[in-house]
Design goal:
By secondary structure, the chain is of the alpha+beta class. It is built from eight helices and ten strands. The strands form three sheets. Strands 5-4-3-7-6 form a five-stranded antiparallel β-sheet. A three-stranded antiparallel β-sheet has the order 8-9-10. Mean pLDDT is 84; it is low at 148-153 and 155-172. The longest helix has 45 residues, at 100-144. α1 packs antiparallel against α2. The protein has two domains: 2-143, no CATH class; 167-288, LytTr DNA-binding domain (OB fold (Dihydrolipoamide Acetyltransferase, E2P)). β6 and β7 form a beta hairpin.
Length: 292
């Protein structure tokens, strides 16, 4: 409402002060009030369009899937509606023909006048989402890298048995680490890893690219399998889908970066990160906060 009121007020003030598009030649009574009507149209129509959109789609869903490109498309549709409204209002005042020519003139006028407030609106929304995502990223990073406060008690750690509080029935047993097994579509080729090795899995058309650590080096191995099929073979709550083209091992995430479009997860390795789409953003951050 505030943004739409600002846009409507800007349109009215611009028309009254500068009288563009031949308005200065228009001789009529209460001219300023009539021109203010175009500002009113520019306020009412976006409110109506927004109300209709929010009735169809939940506001949270719109915010979670927001991008600059989508915002521009929505704004373009709203500008078309404003142009139609201005043409109808202008035809009632007998200063604009009710025709395709009149509509094109109204649309061009709306674009020229609206480009400044629309740009400010997009930048404002972009910066708002950027701030929110940065704050959430900082919160998660604080959990991933907690400040260690040491005092004298902490520094004097008493000596303990090599296997403290270990029940007698499992002392001496070898702990078996379950492996991750990714099986190809031919049911023959497979890749086996221990969970700590896996960084992420990336979709590559009909293949999936497994990215993992071996001998302290990053390695990649292709397997003929869709990401959806790979996902069905996982049984870990911390190895999850984070994007249309990525599955990530949250256990190996070292840092979260936030921007207006969402988040990026890095592994403490240069140029090694994965994107997080808005659909998965909140769930991924919540899971990262559970990692000890």
């Amino acid at each position: 409402m505030i943004t739409n009121f600002f846009v409507g007020g800007f349109v009215a003030l611009f028309l009254i002060v500068f009288e563009p598009f031949g308005i200065s030649q228009w001789q009529t009574d209460i001219k300023a009030l009539k021109l203010a009507g175009f500002g009113l149209v520019s306020f009412i129509i976006p409110v109506l369009v927004s109300t209709i959109i929010f009735q169809i789609i939940q506001k949270k869903t719109i915010q979670d899937n927001w991008t600059v490109g989508k915002e521009i498309v929505v704004i373009l549709c709203i500008l078309l509606c404003i142009a139609l409204g201005n043409m109808l209002y202008g035809s009632l005042l007998h200063i604009m023909p009710f025709s395709w020519k009149g509509f094109l003139f109204a649309f061009a006028s709306v674009i020229l006048i609206g480009i400044f407030p629309v740009t400010l609106h997009v930048l404002r929304k972009h910066n708002k989402l950027l701030k929110i995502n940065l704050e959430k990223a900082v919160s998660v990073n604080q959990h991933l890298h907690p400040t260690k406060i040491k005092n004298e008690k902490d520094e004097r750690i008493p000596e303990e048995d090599p296997i403290p509080n270990m029940p007698d029935n499992i002392v001496g047993e070898i702990k078996v680490i379950p492996k991750l097994i990714f099986i190809a579509e031919n049911e023959k080729d497979k890749i086996e890893l221990i969970p700590e090795q896996l960084l992420y899995i990336e979709s590559a058309d009909n293949y999936s690219n497994i990215v993992f650590i071996e001998n302290e080096k990053i390695k990649k191995q292709l397997i003929r399998s869709s990401l959806k099929r790979i996902e069905s073979q996982l049984n870990s709550d911390l190895i999850v889908r984070c994007h249309r083209t990525f599955i990530v091992n949250l256990k190996n995430v070292k840092n979260v970066e936030g921007n207006a479009a969402g988040y990026k997860l890095s592994f403490g390795i240069e140029n090694c990160f994965v994107a997080v789409s808005r659909n998965y953003g909140n769930s991924i951050l919540d899971k990262l906060k559970t990692i000890k």
